[in-house]
Amino acid sequence: MKIVSKTILFFCAALLTSQAWAFEALPKQAPAPKDNPITKAKIELGKQLFFDPRLSKDGTVSCNSCHNVMASGTDNRPVSVGVDAQKGGRSAPTVWNAAFLSTQFWDGRAASLEDQAKGPILNPIEMGMPSADEVVARIKGIPGYVKQFKKVFGGKDPVTYDNLAKAIATFERTLITPDSKFDRYMRGDKKALSKKAKAGMKLVKDIGCTSCHTGPNFSGPKNLKVGEGFFQKFPTFSGSNYDKKYNLMADLGLYSVTNKDSDKNMWRVPTWRNVAVTAPYFHNGSVQSLDEAVKVMAKTQLNKDLTEQQVGEIVAFLNSLTGKFPKITMPRLPDTPNTSLVN
Amino acid sequence: MKIVSKTILFFCAALLTSQAWAFEALPKQAPAPKDNPITKAKIELGKQLFFDPRLSKDGTVSCNSCHNVMASGTDNRPVSVGVDAQKGGRSAPTVWNAAFLSTQFWDGRAASLEDQAKGPILNPIEMGMPSADEVVARIKGIPGYVKQFKKVFGGKDPVTYDNLAKAIATFERTLITPDSKFDRYMRGDKKALSKKAKAGMKLVKDIGCTSCHTGPNFSGPKNLKVGEGFFQKFPTFSGSNYDKKYNLMADLGLYSVTNKDSDKNMWRVPTWRNVAVTAPYFHNGSVQSLDEAVKVMAKTQLNKDLTEQQVGEIVAFLNSLTGKFPKITMPRLPDTPNTSLVN
Fold first, then answer.
1. Which of these is catalytic: B44, B114, B126, B172?
2. Is the pLDDT of residue B14 over 70?
3. Predicted confidence band of residue B201 (pLDDT cuts 50, 70, 90)
4. Where does the pLDDT of residue A11 fall: very low under 50, low under 70, confident under 90, or very high at 90 and above?
């Protein structure tokens, strides 16, 4: 994994925003790595695994528990609850459009969706499985999974932790929302955005938000390679009342991965897609309303105090980024006849 | 609610089985009470509520957590896990075809699906909401629900606990599996059942299993009214090794509702539908395999020791009762912009 701290980009913000930066619609398909092509059978297998609580120690937590696909792709709470009612330290990011992020997790410690999928299953306060081997053993105890792993991956020993992650990542690549009002506007429907949203669209560019929240996913330049992180210091302008009010500096972000002083309070730039429905906000879920989140970001990242009108316009624009969530058929989780598997 | 202990039926078993008792296919539609007609919008609302963990105290447990519609309609574990990682005392019965039961819960204490739906939400070890009023308040905090309750139920104050239960029950009435091999056989496809399954079908009638496991849902006579329970003592023939081995008598069943001595160890007769995929078995989930469950039932209820061949035949028949699970589109849970609702 290659973590590139692009702090330098922030200092080029003035330059960037003066250029003819173009907003971009979300592609209608997410990219997939060459060694994990998308197939229908793999999507179906990944969907089952994503919704299967048997991937957790005590059979109570699935990927979907915290990244709720039936909702905004998150659990809409400050921090998530894992096995044994344990609370995590960071707010669950949405799984919707995660396929367009160049690194995963708030601190970007996973390069790909595949890498990410392997984390929470083994995290003691999330899904709590003791080891990858135990996960594989459990999957091997479910005949319907063994059959599908064989079909999807082939080979002598297809039920592996890597393949499990590949299947989940493949399902996640279908979780995209390319038909927001903003996207329809970008594709030519000039009535798709309200006047207020258009004013907000101009504003986020003029004041510099889009120097970080750029690209089709508003989470960084579109040509970043997988694993090439796009980070920003938060707060960049420390010292405002918000630091203490929302406890913004306690979690050191990327530093907790690299132990480099320059990475203190560095965070992967999160997407704006569906941001209006993914409250509460920030890595610690400390801010409930989008209005307040916009004010905090303007102050801490751009050292700007916005007027209520400006906030309203930006929020109107952000609301235009809420996508149409595709209809998804529920998976059928494979049966375990004659055993309860989890006790 | 009217609980009628039909112990007498057991003692008439010999008589019943000598009659020309006919097996019956499952109806293709579940019955609905007059005051809660099935509508498309109500099914959709009920589906959302069924899958919404925000109906639990801490936002971690939904109806689906224990009655997993993506699986066998249960959580396939001895006892379920509720909020704060608390374990319940009884095994979650399947929600599939619960619409054909005349009473709900293992002890039949709820007359209808509507009554049942109100229980777990307020049960401190299940979903743990402190009161019906708090549930209603939480629903009222989700604009998308308020809108749907208005549309579905109308009136001045449509968001009520009763209406919530009505919506959930309506969704549950769609959770039926009328196309098992057995049903196809009963509808004329004589090849749908294997020779072994047919032998099992004859056997369950000849030895008396069907004196209780009767009717289209194999859970009692088909003409029972809503709330008219169909109970049986388990074990009826106490004293076998199984009593202790599987701790069959510790939970007093219906007695815990009525406090009548005659109701000690009385249980509602559970369905056979999908029984092959709902391990583990019995009210306490103490038995893992269907073979063993069949042996235990023959011994404790009919005082019969079955041969391995007989067990195999009965299990083959029971396997023919696994239905085709209909495809269901995932609900979209209504958003809560600007608030996390559950912390």
1. B126
2. no
3. very high
4. very low
Q: Do B136 and B194 lie in a common domain?
A: no
- Would A313 be classed as within a structural domain? yes
Size (chain A), residues = 343
Look at residue B332 and tell me whether its pLDDT is greater than 80. yes
Inter-chain residue contact A337 with B70, CB threshold 8 Å: no
- Looking at the fold, whether B143 and B275 belong to one and the same domain comes out as no
Q: Catalytic residue, from A24, A44, A114, A126: name it.
A: A126
pLDDT of amino acid A21: 55
pLDDT tens per residue across span A89-135: 999 999 999 999 999 999 999 999 999 999 999 999 999 999 999 99
Is residue A201 located within the same domain as residue A89? Answer: no
Range of the structural domain that residue A215 is part of = 7-28+177-319
Of B78, B335, B342, the CB nearest to A77: B342
Question: Is the pLDDT confidence value at B218 over 60?
Answer: yes
Stated pTM of the model: 0.94
ipTM of this predicted complex?
0.94
CB contact under 8 A, A77 and B59: yes
pLDDT tens figures, A200-224:
999 999 999 999 999 999 999 988 9
Q: What is the 3-state secondary structure (H, E, C) of chain A?
A: CCCCCCHHHHHCHHHHHHCCCCCCCCCCCCCCCCCCCCCHHHHHHHHHHHCCHHHCCCCCCCHHHHCCCCCCCCCCCCCCECHHHCECCCCCCCCCCHHHCCCECCCCCECCHHHHHHHHHHCCCCCCCCCHHHHHHHHHCCHHHHHHHHHHHCCCCCCCHHHHHHHHHHHHCCCCCCCCHHHHHHCCCCCCCCHHHHHHHHHHHHCCHHHCCCCCCCCCCCCCCCCCCCEEECCCCCCCHHHHHCCCCCCCECHHHHCCHHHCCEEECCCCCCHHHCCCECCCCCECCHHHHHHHHHHHHHCCCCCHHHHHHHHHHHHCCCCCCCCCECCCCCCCCCCCCCC
Residue A243, in any domain of the structure? yes
Closest by Cβ to A337, choosing from B290, B327, B328: B290
Residue B111: partners with Cβ closer than 8 Å, 6 or more residues away: B1, B2, B103, B104, B226, B227
Asked if the Cβ–Cβ distance from A338 to B279 is below 8 Å, we say: yes
- Does residue A18 surpass a pLDDT of 50? no
Residues of A in contact with B83 (CB under 8 A): 85
User: Is B114 in the active site?
Assistant: no
Question: Chain A contacts of B60, Cβ < 8 Å?
Answer: 65, 81, 85
The reply to whether residue A70 touches residue B276, judged by beta carbons under 8 angstroms, is no
Number of domains in chain A: 2
Residue A326 lies in a domain: no
Q: Which of A58, A289, A333 sits opposite B71 (nearest CB)?
A: A333
Whether residue A16 is found in the same domain as residue A138: no
CB nearest to A332's CB, from B81, B84, B325: B325
> In chain B, which residues touch A (CB < 8 A)?
51, 53, 58-60, 65, 68-72, 75-78, 81, 83-85, 276-277, 279-280, 285, 288-291, 325, 327-333, 335-343
